[in-house]
Design brief:
By secondary structure, the protein is of the alpha+beta class. The chain is 43% helix and 17% strand. The protein has one domain. The termini are far apart.
């Protein structure tokens, strides 16, 4: 597994000044492989953002030149995004997207169990809020009678 210092090459590609790599250590090897593949296609490609959304890797990058063929570039990013759906964000082992406390994270079984035990606010969906509101209004009307 890659350590944080090995991602310095990747961080040097980031175009914005205050952008960080926002994903778990389990995806660092995946990021290094993707960087290597993209650097083979375009050694000076520009990285715009690295993060995650709905349990999947988000890797926004662009070729350094309009002369570069975008298809292999985009295919490599799509392949890494697809691989992230099968790789635990924490450790890199086989995992899958799971809903934990209102967020979707790609986790293996042991890290899913640990994540479901961690304290923190649960995010409620609109259906849960509606149910809550109905219960409160019902209890108010009952207390008046």
């Amino acid at each position: 597994m890659a350590d944080t210092t090995s991602l310095q090459t990747l961080a040097a590609r980031i175009e914005a000044v205050s952008v960080s790599i926002e994903c778990g250590a389990g995806w660092h090897d995946l990021l290094e492989r993707l960087d290597s593949t993209l650097a083979t296609i375009d050694p000076h490609y520009v990285l715009l953002y690295v993060g995650r959304d709905r349990g999947l890797l988000v890797y926004q990058a662009r070729p350094s030149s309009d002369l570069c063929d975008r298809r292999p570039f985009e295919m490599a990013v799509r392949s890494a995004t697809s691989a992230s759906a099968r790789s635990c964000e924490v450790c890199g082992r086989l995992g899958r997207p799971r809903r934990i406390g209102g967020l979707t994270e790609t986790l293996c079984d042991p890290h899913r169990a640990a994540a479901s035990r961690r304290p923190g606010p649960r995010i409620r969906g609109p259906r849960a809020l509606r149910r809550c509101t109905r219960t409160r209004s019902f209890s108010r009307s009952r207390s008046r009678t």
